[in-house]
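Hello support,

Our group uses your service weekly, and this is the first time we've seen a run hang past the timeout. The protein is TauD/TfdA dioxygenase family protein. I'm not sure whether the cause is the sequence or the server load. Input pasted verbatim:
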Amino acid sequence: MPEFQVRSLDAGLPFGIRIAGLTRAMLEDASTRQQIDDLFVTHGMIVFEDVEQSDEMQLAISSCFGPLKEHPVKAVSRVDSDRLPGVIEIRSRRGQGIVEVNGKQLSHWLPWHFDHCYNDELNRAGVLRSVERVEEGGITGFLDGVALWKVFPEDLRDRIESAEVLYKLATQYDQLKFGRPAEYKMIEPKPIPPSFHEQVATMSRAIHPVVWTHACGDKALHISAYMAEGIVGDETPAGDALLERVCQEINRLGESCSYHHKWREGDMVIWDNTRMLHCVSGNNPDEERLMYRTTIAGDYGLGRWETTPANTATADAMA
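Update from on-call engineer: The timeout came from a worker crash unrelated to the input. Re-ran successfully.
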């Protein structure tokens, strides 16, 4: 059987690889699937290049890394729940969800974050495919928490290594409390259906550690500026100032030790959600962008609710 080709993501980065030459037929082989999963554990993310752009191929690649998990937010658009369970649609529509960052208006901009921080249970990974691309922007950035921890200022490491952060499901741009760009304001809010607010009302805040030891054996810095509420036990001006300093340091270091992916036809990307942070550059509000994402189940086991959710049935359904 032909073999796929592996090369580094970027010569200057200590994480990530590129895989080319992968076909659906090759993924029927159990040893090939295991080899790809082993590479993923070691490197944290994979860019699959020039692969078949179909729902079936996305599901085949996703299945190398574990079973699919339904997205915990019920209001998120599903592509086709009967035919493609676990595949969600991420669409940037014209004139919606606009923020101004450093004087430029952008649609679907997102800061450094990890997925499902607002839940007690994370997901192992996400597999992303670009269905409709934009000419400018629409770039997805990736930042390795293992590499980030190694270069983080020692004084901050000492202060946050044993800390935990509170998160709350809050997607509007004006709700971002920490790590804002220097010039930042919401121009047009995201449209939010009533069912979203109903679900939020049943949910407690979630708690996750700032630092944890990854399966690769190294410590990873793992903070989402998006949806962060404060430090557990220190929701004070001093605690907020510390969390703000940490998030701004992540922004600063993210400029030099991250990878930013400009989407092409034939690309799919998987990243380790328990190790990597990611962000979205945003795009021209007059253009539309469409991504399909699968969510891979598999939790790191360190998250928890602040209190028992008001609606246990809803919480169980989200897990």
